[in-house]
Specification:
- By secondary structure, this protein is of the alpha+beta class.
- It folds into five domains: 7-185, P-loop containing nucleotide triphosphate hydrolases (Rossmann fold, 3-Layer(aba) Sandwich); 198-282, Translation factors (Elongation Factor Tu (Ef-tu), domain 3), CATH 2.40.30; 301-371, Elongation Factor G (Translational Gtpase), domain 3 (Alpha-Beta Plaits), CATH 3.30.70.870; 379-484, 2-Layer Sandwich (Alpha-Beta Plaits); 489-599, Alpha-Beta Plaits.
- The protein contains 14 helices and 31 strands.
- It has an eight-stranded antiparallel beta sheet. The protein has a six-stranded mixed beta sheet with strand order 2-3-1-4-5-6, with helices on both faces.
- α12 runs antiparallel to α14.
- The two termini are 58 Å apart.
């Protein structure tokens, strides 16, 4: 099967869905039905190339693939599919993918119905004017509620039931009708003739031998080997060494024209030269105005990443810079700690994003690392009227100079069966949330909108929500505003010395509970010394929690037998003086394992 370039026969589309609604399996069936992958090469979750994606059963990275499909009318179409993640933390991946498409398949699990993240992604697609095709998946399951899902789609998204495609990605039922609807409903890319090359950079990846591979959607013009191209945001110029497409493995082609999706390499060794959302044009007589980029997503959760061995610092720097190349939301800056040495302060989109980055550094680069407790950005208004933003407790200003502190709040949309409403309301009340509205989606489910402090949902909120609802509830969140809050700095002192690695910023109402939990944990993991060691949690000059590690005792009077009691008293006094002197000058050495076990501690 051969495709002759014609923009009218190109279809660029994405798949959007909630986690575990069968998105990757549907992509497998599309690849199989179009003959892109032979049955011999076929494996489950073909587009989920990372081991981490297969283990967790989630899509982390957007994966482009080109398919050729012969429609019923005999025309051969080029279909460019960009698979997208479903977790709320990876919304930025979805927004990048949608910017390179004209349409999207909305996949809904017939057993679970429309979920919070699906709704959020549909709104992202509608904002960009994409054509939505609704697909009801897993109709072969005994738990499938097809009529209920029809009703949800009609009431929530105004999609008539006759327009919804029924399919089972597992058995292959309904796959051909999906391809026919992509051909008939999704518009061809609008390609302007006679204008310079413009291409949108929607992703990139670092290759050990070829440098950065830049994933692009060509809007107009043509890119081919030997062409000098310019990145408009950096004004950097490179010569194209190779152009190619994904089938789904990389396949070299002569060039990419308007409307097509693929990649190019240009011996780009400096990873910072590739900006996601940038416009690529020709170095000479190129476009004057950059393409309108998509929304730049700022990191909301910050944590320190440190190497276990200080000699791995440079290797960690290289690893994070390479990861940042295909992870536009990862923010990195160098920092140092008296207790932990040199490391990096990194910004993430959520707790899952943090976990994935840490796991990728360990697996892909073989580095042994650990992270500090995650925190958010607080906004401080100082007495002189100036405003500063702080995410690191080490930068906490003098309390006397602070006028007020504001913390970020988010709108949280929770979809849950009626049965778990009480549990969820208890959880959100504990997390300082306020209910804004409650809507009935159907006879079984509710959509509840809460306003919650971001700091409360980045720790254990998702796990506890799933646990309390037996896995049935789902949630999505978006930034609301900054609100004034009673935010304090909790310090942990070991033998009167402040340990900056354990310090954190949090609401005063949570400080005592967290301080007590940290002190108890440290008392367990710090080894006993020859003198008593006090462990204290303090806010300013006030101690809110305390534990004491008792001293290793030695019976100095064991050699005394018989005689006067004054002999023993003299030895006890001598020992007491020695202990006092030791307490004044002694240093408590906290082992690395203690840092690790405390930093892993999740305290709500």
């Amino acid at each position: 099967m051969e495709f002759r370039y014609d923009p009218l026969l190109i279809r660029n589309f994405s798949i959007i869905a909630h986690i575990d609604h069968g998105k990757s399996t549907l992509a497998d069936r599309l690849l199989e039905c179009t003959g892109t992958i032979s049955k011999r090469e076929m494996q489950e979750q073909v587009l989920d190339a990372m081991d981490l994606e297969r283990e967790r059963g989630i899509t982390i990275k957007a994966h482009p693939v080109r398919m050729l499909y012969t429609a019923k009318d005999g025309r051969i179409f080029q279909m460019n599919l960009i698979d997208t993640p479903g977790h709320v933390d990876f919304t930025y991946e979805v927004s990048r993918s949608l910017s390179a498409c004209e349409g999207a398949l909305l996949v809904v699990d017939a057993g679970q119905g429309l979920q919070a993240q699906s709704l959020a992604n549909v709104h992202l697609a509608l904002e960009r004017g994409l054509k939505i095709i609704a697909v009801l998946n897993k109709i072969d399951l005994p738990t499938a509620d097809i009529d209920g899902c029809f009703q949800q789609l009609e009431e929530t998204l105004a999609i008539p039931r006759e327009e919804v495609i029924l399919c089972s990605a597992k058995t292959g039922q309904g796959i051909e009708p999906i391809l026919e609807r992509v051909v008939s409903d999704i518009p061809a890319p609008a390609v302007e003739q006679g204008v310079p090359l413009t291409a949108l950079v929607f992703d990139s990846r670092y290759d050990l031998y070829r440098g950065a591979l830049v994933y692009i959607r060509v809007i107009s013009g043509e890119i081919k080997k030997g062409l000098a191209v310019r990145f408009m945001s950096q004004e950097s110029v490179y010569e194209v060494l190779e152009t190619g497409v994904f089938t789904p493995t990389q396949r070299q082609v002569d060039g990419l024209s308007g409307g097509e999706v693929g990649y190019f390499s240009a011996n780009i060794k400096t990873t910072s030269d590739v900006k996601i959302g940038d416009t690529v044009t020709t170095a000479k007589n190129g476009a004057m105005v950059a393409l309108p980029g998509f929304r730049v997503v700022k990191p909301v959760v910050f944590a320190g990443i440190y190497p276990m061995d200080s000699q791995d610092f440079e290797a960690l720097r290289d690893a994070l810079s390479k990861l940042r190349l295909n992870d536009a939301a990862l923010h990195i800056e160098q920092e140092s700690s008296a207790a932990l040495g040199f490391g990096f302060r990194c910004g993430f989109l959520g707790l899952l994003h943090l976990e994935i980055v840490v796991e990728r550094v360990r697996r892909e680069f073989g580095l042994d690392i650990f992270t500090t407790s995650p925190s958010v950005i607080y906004r401080f208004t100082m007495a002189d009227g100036s405003t500063i933003e702080i995410d690191n407790p080490a930068r906490y200003p003098d309390p006397a100079t602070i006028e007020s502190v504001e913390e970020p709040w988010v709108f949280t949309h929770i979809i849950t069966p009626h049965d778990y409403l009480g549990n969820i309301m208890s959880l959100t009340t504990e997390k300082r949330g306020s209910c804004i509205k409650m809507e009935t989606l159907d006879t079984k489910r509710l959509l509840i909108t809460y306003e919650l402090p971001l700091n409360e949902i980045i720790t254990d909120f998702a796990d506890r929500l799933k646990s309390l609802s037996k896995g049935y509830a789902s949630f999505d969140y978006s930034f609301s505003e900054y609100k004034k809050g009673d935010i304090v700095k909790l310090e942990i002192r070991v033998n009167e010395e402040v340990i900056d690695a354990f310090s954190c910023l949090l609401h005063r109402s949570k400080s005592e509970g967290r301080g007590r939990a940290l002190c108890e944990k440290l008392a367990e993991v710090i080894p006993m010394q020859l003198f008593r060691v006090p462990i204290q949690a303090a806010i300013g000059g006030k101690i809110v929690a305390r534990e004491t590690i008792r001293a290793i005792t030695k019976n100095v009077t064991a050699k005394c037998y018989g005689g006067d009691i004054t002999r023993k008293k003299k030895l006890w006094e001598k020992q007491k003086e020695g202990k006092k002197r030791m307490r004044e000058f002694g240093k408590v050495s906290i082992p690395q394992s203690a840092f690790m076990s405390v930093l892993k501690l999740n305290i709500g």
